[in-house]
Amino acid sequence: MLSRRHLRVKLLQSLYAFIQSEESDVAKGEQALMNSINEVYDLYILLLDLLVEVKNTEEQLFVDRKNKYIPSKEDLNPNTNFVDNRFFKLIESCAQFQREKADRKISWEDNDDLPKKIKNLLKESNFYKEYMAIKKPNFEEDQKFVMKAFKKVIADNDLLYDYLEDTNVHWGDDLYFACSFVVNTIKKADEESDSSFSLIPLYKDEKDDRDFLITLYRRTILDNKDLDKTIQSKAKNWELDRIAVMDMLLMKMAITEIKEVRSVPIKVSLNEYIELAKAYSTPKSKVFINGILDKLINEFRTDGSINKNERGLKE
Questions:
Q1: N or C: which end of the chain has fewer CB within 10 A?
Q2: DSSP of 240-253, one letter per residue?
Q3: How far apart are the first and last CA of the chain?
Q4: Largest Cα span, the chain
Q5: 274 CB-contact burial (10 Å; exposed 0-12 / middle 13-18 / buried 19+)
Q6: What is the DSSP letter of 24?
Q7: Segments making up each domain of the chain, as ranges
């Protein structure tokens, strides 16, 4: 599921796009934000389906070889460790997966070449050969093999990355999030879970997380001019147009979260935006942003504009 950090990243990307496009329709931008988050789940289902499709290409190869005019002994009795892997069977038999796949129109039919190329890369790996040499793999061995296949051959595959970028403008950035979903899905699989196996949900708590997103999105945009003044009051030696756009946006989001979201402690919000600054802005941004926000937090505490009264949230 998407963590609050993941949600902040998606929010940052959407607010930045809104500002750069000079869009004025907040509702339209808000819908684009929610759509971009939902697309992370599309990618999650697509990656799970890719795992299954890679297996299916090998299964089809077995059928083709058996139907040869004069099949060899190996053609008639192939090593089936890979195609009989229990994790693949869990996914394929999961009604929720099949429903999500159908509803989201997820398929590799238009690019069946990529699963074949990934399968060929997989078969060249030492861990594939070691797995195929096991006489009768147990569920744990099946699970470990799929985890290695996903992490070493699929998740870090340039061909896959190029395909995703060509298919959806957001998927290159979303790959990390979707991969974490797949890894957790593989981890939580259990041999006895045939009837209870389920996918990772998109949100930890859908209502709370959506409220968090919408509150931050709306207030950051609607309070934009006031936020400019607030930041300017603590950046005496800086003209606003000299401060990086991303730094301004991160500070505006942080101020909005600190003042509007009662369920998140101040220290957590501050730390989260410093981490975002490290990842998405300049090397010096974290120090600058931390300095401005520290001054503002002290002022907010003094004038009573922070309302974090819930138990366990006061610092």
A1: C
A2: GGGS-HHHHHHHHH
A3: 28
A4: 86
A5: middle
A6: -
A7: 4-188, 223-303
CA atoms within 13 A on the CB side of 182: 27
CATH of 223-303, one of 1.10.940.10, 3.30.1330.10, 3.40.50.1580, 3.90.180.10: 1.10.940.10
Torsion of CA 195, 196, 200, 204, to 10 degrees: 150
- In angstroms, the CA 262 to CA 196 distance is 36
Reduce the DSSP state of residue 72 to 3 states and report it: coil
Q: Rounded to the nearest 5 degrees, what angle is found at the Cα of 173, between the Cα atoms of 221 and 14?
A: 10
Tell me the two tokens of residue 36: 């971009």
Q: Which residues neighbour 193 within 8 Å (Cβ) at sequence distance 6 or greater? A: 90
The pLDDT assigned to 313 comes to 42
In 10 A of CB 226, how many CB atoms?
12
What integer pLDDT is reported at residue 159 of this predicted model?
A: 94
Distance CA 185, CA 147 (A): 10
**Tokens, residue 289:** 């942003």
User: Residue 252: is its pLDDT beyond 60?
Assistant: yes
Structure tokens at 242: 């000299």
pLDDT digits (tens, 9 = 90+) for 266-288: 999 999 999 999 999 988 899 99
Q: How many CB atoms lie within 10 A of CB 133?
A: 10
Residue 271 confidence (pLDDT): 95
Q: Which two tokens stand for residue 257?
A: 């979260």
Q: Are 202 and 37 in contact (CB under 8 A)?
A: yes
124-171 per-position pLDDT tens digit: 999 999 999 999 999 999 999 999 999 999 998 999 999 999 999 889
pLDDT of residue 193: 64
pLDDT classification of 195: cutoffs 50, 70, 90:
low
Q: What is the pLDDT of residues 218-249, one digit of tens each?
A: 999 999 999 999 999 988 777 776 788 899 99
* CA dist., res. 223 & res. 220, Å (int): 6
Q: What is the DSSP letter of 203?
A: B
